[in-house]
């Protein structure tokens, strides 16, 4: 925009090709043209009809330029503006400090190469062409990204796993590696940093526990551990229940090795709710493997009950939650205890782009192993969405329980509602237990044990049980309340349809369910080729009217909204504000 000097008699207002003098006169700017250009202006050109053609002034030309620019800006679609805003938010998130130790950050240490291991695949697998490897990946719907990706191995025996473990797997119905295992295990055995994304119930636990067990076994064979040494590696979990379950698996596999004559590996479950005095036996010898929740692990490291001086393996289960804002500072504190390079693995069923981007910055030459879209629902789950009025939910819940035999899990996002549902079911003669964050550790352990053992038919749970917990043979999952975040929905329905078996997930929605959440659900059902009820199909996406991209949210993976109105991002911002006010958001 052109502005006249302050002492000029003309002030440009813009937009209507007019000028205004200090005493209010409005004109088209040509009255004083002769004074401006004096007699040096050439005579107006004459057209073929003999009429003088109007001469355009520089001011008019400038006004036209601004007018055209304004028209172009107005034509700029709302979608483009939204896309630009989204990109700014995403860049702000990605600019967070890397997840590395304070020592590495202070000294600017960056590792150029991945850690070296002694593991090598058989010669015939090493000699496969990349085209052959890609065909195997395509067969199992595996997507990889990274440099020098290790070859996929569709047979456990070719991975050089001890025979005793192969027999143990076979005894427990595990005969062939799942897609995440056939690519994830060779990647982890090779010492590479890794981001693993796969449906719930796809065998991720084996994919990150077995490499640590073999690494610890190799170190113990070289020089036996003594008191005060170790651990070799740590597995970090966001909840006590998930940590307990992972620890049980590690104990089973290490016990199978010990019973066959291999050296005993000392393992420790480090989480709140259990007395460390009861686990003092673990500190009498060297420590090989720690499975932990963030809060208790930090407490033990601060008290120097053990150190990470020799720790070279870190795995975060449900890593999207571990790296997210709620636990990020805890994870940073844990990273500060590492003294050397380590192999880092991040696993989850939901790993939105913003977490992937952030993790890529923090890992060394990482490999992304993706089985299905991050945040997509398990295709082995039949999803049913029912419109149920709030006051009719309890009665309809009883009807839904008749659809399948037990065991059944009922989810609600409200602790009081969890207790109300359990009480109602008990009054109706249904054997039910409840689990949520306000229950004592003993109550939670009893609920899990009795439900797993078949003594109880129904477990009513809050979100604490939705991530990672593996209950065998779950026939039916009922979402009494639709979670606000679509990630939580994916985790909850993933409690059924595990290990290739089919399950049913029924979800209650009504007018209390946010429209944005319903839109996320609509797109998720369409992606999984599930039946979409008419009331969901009738919901229109406001982004479509704006011509915006419908690629989904890079923060939470929801397909029905963009980053600018992401409920997870809003929740994280609230958590940050609460943290600044001194709220406790640890995973103790």
Describe this structure in words.
It contains 22 helices and 17 strands. The protein is of the alpha/beta class and 588 residues long. It folds into three domains: 11-75, no CATH class; 93-371, P-loop containing nucleotide triphosphate hydrolases (Rossmann fold), CATH 3.40.50.300; 381-539, P-loop containing nucleotide triphosphate hydrolases (Rossmann fold, 3-Layer(aba) Sandwich), CATH 3.40.50.300. Strand 1 (11-12) and strand 2 form a beta hairpin. The longest helix is centred in the middle third of the chain and has 20 residues, at 240-259. The chain is globular and about 90 Å long. Mean pLDDT is 79; it is low at 1-41, 47-53 and 583-588. It holds the Pfam family DEAD. It is an enzyme of class 3 (hydrolase).
Question: What sort of overall outline do the alpha carbons produce when their principal axes are compared?
Answer: globular
Average pLDDT, rounded to a whole number, is 79
Strand percent estimate: 5-15%
Low-confidence stretches: 1-41, 47-53, 583-588
CATH superfamily of the largest domain: P-loop containing nucleotide triphosphate hydrolases
Number of helices, counting only DSSP H or I runs of 4 residues or more: 22
Global structural class: alpha/beta
Radius of gyration: 31 Å
């Amino acid at each position: 925009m052109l502005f006249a000097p302050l002492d000029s008699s003309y002030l440009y207002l813009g937009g209507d090709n007019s000028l205004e003098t200090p005493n209010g006169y409005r004109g088209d700017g040509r009255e004083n043209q002769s004074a401006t250009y004096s007699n040096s202006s050439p005579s107006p050109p004459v057209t073929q009809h003999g009429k003088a053609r109007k001469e355009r002034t520089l001011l008019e030309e400038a006004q036209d330029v601004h007018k055209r620019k304004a028209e172009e800006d107005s034509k700029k679609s709302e979608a483009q503006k939204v896309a630009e805003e989204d990109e700014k938010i995403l860049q702000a998130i990605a600019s967070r400090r890397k997840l590395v130790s304070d020592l590495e950050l202070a000294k600017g240490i960056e590792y150029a190469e991945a850690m070296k291991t002694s593991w090598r695949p058989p010669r015939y697998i090493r000699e496969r062409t990349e085209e052959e490897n890609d065909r195997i990946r395509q067969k199992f719907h595996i997507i990889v990204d990274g440099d020098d990706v290790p070859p996929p191995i569709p047979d456990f025996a070719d991975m050089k796993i001890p025979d005793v473990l192969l027999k143990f797997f076979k005894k427990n119905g595990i005969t062939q590696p799942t897609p995440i295992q056939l690519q994830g295990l060779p990647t982890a055995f090779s010492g590479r940093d890794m981001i693993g994304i796969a449906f719930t119930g796809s065998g991720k636990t084996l994919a990150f526990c077995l490499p640590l067990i073999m690494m610890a076994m190799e170190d113990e064979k070289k020089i036996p551990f003594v008191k005060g040494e170790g651990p070799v590696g740590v597995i970090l979990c966001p909840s006590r229940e998930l940590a307990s379950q992972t620890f049980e698996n590690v104990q089973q596999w290490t016990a199978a090795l010990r019973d066959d004559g291999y050296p005993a590996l000392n393992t420790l479950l480090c989480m709140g709710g259990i007395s460390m005095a009861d686990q003092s036996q673990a500190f009498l010898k060297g420590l090989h493997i720690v499975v932990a929740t963030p809060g208790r692990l930090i407490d033990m490291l601060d008290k120097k009950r053990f150190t990470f001086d020799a720790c070279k393996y870190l795995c975060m289960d449900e890593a999207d939650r571990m790296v997210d804002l709620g636990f990020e500072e805890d994870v940073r504190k844990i990273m500060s205890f590492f003294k050397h390079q380590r192999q880092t693995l991040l696993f989850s069923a939901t790993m939105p782009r913003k977490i992937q981007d952030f993790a890529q910055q923090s890992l060394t030459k990482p490999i992304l192993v993706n089985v299905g879209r991050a945040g997509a629902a398990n295709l082995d789950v039949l999803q049913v969405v029912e419109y149920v009025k709030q006051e009719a939910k309890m009665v309809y819940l009883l009807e839904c329980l008749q659809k399948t035999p037990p065991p059944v899990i009922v989810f609600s996002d409200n602790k009081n509602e969890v207790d109300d549902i359990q009480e109602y079911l008990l009054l109706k003669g249904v054997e039910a237990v409840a689990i949520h964050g306000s229950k004592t550790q003993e109550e939670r352990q009893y609920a899990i044990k009795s439900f797993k053992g078949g003594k109880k038919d129904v477990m009513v749970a809050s979100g604490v049980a939705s991530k990672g917990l593996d209950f065998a043979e779950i026939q039916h999952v009922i979402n009494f309340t639709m979670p606000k975040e679509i990630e939580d929905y994916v985790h909850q329905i993933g409690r059924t349809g595990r290990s290739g078996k089919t399950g049913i997930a029924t979800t209650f929605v009504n007018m209390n369910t946010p429209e944005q959440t319903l839109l996320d659900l609509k797109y998720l059902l369409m992606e999984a080729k599930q039946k979409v009820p008419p009331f969901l199909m009738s919901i229109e996406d406001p982004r479509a009217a704006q011509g915006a991209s419908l690629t989904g949210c890079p923060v939470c993976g929801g397909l029905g909204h963009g980053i600018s109105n992401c409920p997870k991002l809003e929740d994280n911002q609230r958590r940050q504000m609460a943290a600044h006010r001194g709220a406790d958001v640890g995973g103790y």
